[in-house]
Amino acid sequence: MYFVRLENSMRIGIRFAKTGFGVYLSHLEIMRLFARALRRADIEVKYSQGFNPRIKMIFSTPSPVGLASVAEYAEFEVLDEEDIEDVKNKINAVLPVGVRILNAGYIDKGISNLMECARISEYLLIRKVNFDADEALLATIKGKYERDEKISNGKGFFGLRTLIQDLSVEKKGDKIFLHYFSHVKGKNAIRYDDVIRYFSAEKGILTMAFRLNTFDIGKDEIKINLNEYLRRC
Questions:
Q1: Which residues, 6 or more positions from 219, have their beta carbon under 8 angstroms from its beta carbon?
Q2: Domains in the chain and their CATH numbers?
Q3: What is the pTM of this model?
């Protein structure tokens, strides 16, 4: 097996889903939930130093309340060699409905923490309209993007194509599917709910919002799925 030792400990990264009732959990509640789960699962993890030691756990940029996600990431350190599937199964056994670890692996010492690696996320917004989605409505949404209209992300006004990358719009019956990529931090980042508000002038209501993937950026702007950083062997 391939293990990375850092000060007699090994870094484990996890990809987890937040769906169903889990979408209503805040980031602080998610942090407490995993700290409690690690203790209940009897995983030997590394704690911080001092009078009030806490489990050392780092989360990548969290999705906001209300956004379902299958691409949340976190990492912690274990004190001894553990089978990665056992770790995953033990934690999942004590997690509540709505939160599940999808993948786990050891992290190479050459990779910085997953919070720093998370740069771009992939999103899918599903909107229901009160009529069969027609070409005129799709053309309006696409037209705004093609014209690179200005939108606020709380840090200023930027062109749509600066904040929202590779937008695609598709209709299926009475639903419209908006698929895009956007930065998760920095001046070009935009929250999914700001995207929703921008397009709220168009008729329809949001039914579902998903974070599908989270990426680092490699050479030549190539997207690297954070899942690639979780080594099993």
A1: none
A2: 5-117 (3.30.70.580), 120-225 (3.30.70.3190)
A3: 0.87
